[in-house]
């Protein structure tokens, strides 16, 4: 029983951190443009595929003697840096081509364009892997990362889990410094609040929006690398579900709010893990036998129902500010 | 490919009478088509991609008959010739074109349904295919051996315990109490725009009770039906064995209406909780709900047979149609397609009529009002939720009836047929053709279905046969997402109002222009604002002259 609860909490928090990182990309873009960047899920998959390719290219051959080849930590850092750079630039490119020309159009126009970009990217990623002759990837995480660090109530914590937490913490700290304690961050917040007035104050809003997309894309790439290490089976289409859930997490926490996205991600991760193992409670408590019918696949359903309930009862999310409807 | 650039450019207006060109076009394209199919001479052999291009050109005569100014008799004759004589004949020569024509009609009806939700009422629904799935599964379960298996899994029959019906009944009563409570709260505080404090908490609790009550009603009904069905078949074993291939196929006709009702009810049920949401939130929630339906179809293995799907779904037997098909020398394996083709034509005629009539009715005007400006519509007394739910339910019912046809035609359905990809595919049809315009939406559906089901597989075939060793991951047929994506982005960037923009939209916006005559030049732009507007704040509903240059920029797709 205790080990099950611990498993829910540990796995839920790890998953939640991943959701939080992806959700940050959604929430920052939404905060500045009021646009759901549907393509963000594909940006994140791009990060995962970069992780795959980096580990594949830089890992030592299987018959090489142990200790040869690059240090796995260096490979990991390379994967992170490349993924953040590529995904950040990709996101800027998307913004430039598909969103900026539609800046003044009615709201649904860029939204539909975003869906289109998301679909284009899915098939381009598929094409990329198709040319290489594969499509379903199994990310080959360096063996050193699978070693156990500590065991809490029968739950093994591996090095890759620790890496996930450490990288996420560093990233959050950096993001906080950037957004809340730097001149650039103040400019971004000003554009998010009122683009026209920010322009009058001498802020180049196009540059700030591009920068936001860059940061969002870099976070997506980072999330992709970490996601690929935790869930090694990925393909070009595997971004939609985590992407939608991460957006749900952003809404849950209050869209546009950075601490909200983190909190929402953690809550959603734990709730989802709880729903996923609900049927195992039937084994522990014989009186709850009906729970056995709840398959773990229904956890996806739970995430969306949570989203609907939140939107109905507290549309501004857990940490979001109430906005009044303007005529 | 030429058809794409050619056909849509035609516009009505003060154009000269084009009766003769219309006849010539129809005759030439139909002759070309029959030549391509090898009906005229055996010596000519066209590659399949060219043939399907000719097929689209030939269908273009329908569009021209609609768009061009010509004698009405000729227009009717062209329409009747294309739909009733030529396409069945093409189908007789090559069954795949029959199949394609039916698919085009199915998707046209789906797109018309989505057009009501997105184009008329301005609610972006990304999970539309869920209602299609509802219709398909309603007939799929009963029209195949699946129903027998469901019943058998409940046998031997065990009588219901008290708790089985008492608990849902109590929950139902709780829901009724919650509803009455909510009504009394609203009566006690009339006109309160934003409930505060205790009243707000009480409202939340009563809404929660209503939700519990709805769940209770559903459980109660399901339990009672389950008990009734299994107790009946528990004592009538022979009638259960008779269900091995599904219920009597003549029930197909009844199930068309049942599917309409079921899809409409699920539209209401899904719509009720989410329609309070605005534009982009609604989009992501409907996306999620579409996935939810797919997850259920995948996991409710007892009812849907899970990922394996349901096979050997039957259709109604219509002996006189079969006799007619025999006398017209149709091969027996095409009898079903022959019947379904004419059925689908009738249904799509009904769908178009309903669409046109609704669009001109009070409800249609209310939809447009909500799309243009939700707050203003509300202030004018348009009941928001009721009107939106009507849009959702109407769109859903179109999808439901086409689900039945789809299940009957494919004979096989699985959760994969109802993915997010399909929802976006239907959205692409609506956007490509022109939101809010019936002819445009049908054009979009025909073109997208044609590319998706005829051109891409044809290209794949050609490529596979010319480069046999090619990596199968490069198969063009697998890249329809890319196609949908490119269409969506390019249309949004350069022509958001679609290939055939809605004329009614333009006329309506023109009417409002009397305050500012200069606006008339912005018509196309106004139509786009209207067709895509969510009514959210910040939309240029009321355009001031000062905004014109910026708007004009947008019209021409100028990107600086």
From TrEMBL, chain A:
UniProt keyword list: Amino-acid transport, Cell inner membrane, Cell membrane, Membrane, Transmembrane, Transmembrane helix, Transport
GO biological process: D-alanine transmembrane transport; L-alanine transport; L-isoleucine import across plasma membrane
InterPro entries, per database record: ABC_transp_permease, BCAA_transport_permease
Any single Pfam family the record assigns to this protein: BPD_transp_2
Topology class, membrane: Multi-pass membrane protein
Transport listed as a keyword: yes
Protein's UniProt name: Branched-chain amino acid ABC transporter permease
Gene Ontology MF terms: L-isoleucine transmembrane transporter activity; L-leucine transmembrane transporter activity; L-phenylalanine transmembrane transporter activity; L-valine transmembrane transporter activity
Family: Belongs to the binding-protein-dependent transport system permease family. LivHM subfamily.
Subcellular location: Cell membrane
Organism: Deinococcus ruber
Domain of life: Bacteria
GO (cellular component) term, any one: plasma membrane
Membrane-spanning ranges: 6-25, 72-94, 162-179, 208-228, 249-268, 274-294, 301-320
TrEMBL record, chain B:
UniProt-recorded Gene Ontology molecular function terms: branched-chain amino acid transmembrane transporter activity
Location in the cell: Cell membrane
InterPro entries named among the record's database cross-references: ABC_transp_permease, LivM-like
Domain of life according to the entry: Bacteria
Keyword line: Cell membrane, Membrane, Transmembrane, Transmembrane helix
PANTHER family xrefs: HIGH-AFFINITY BRANCHED-CHAIN AMINO ACID TRANSPORT PROTEIN BRAE, HIGH-AFFINITY BRANCHED-CHAIN AMINO ACID TRANSPORT SYSTEM PERMEASE
Name of protein: Branched-chain amino acid ABC transporter permease
Organism listed in the record: Deinococcus ruber
Lineage: Bacteria, Thermotogati, Deinococcota, Deinococci, Deinococcales
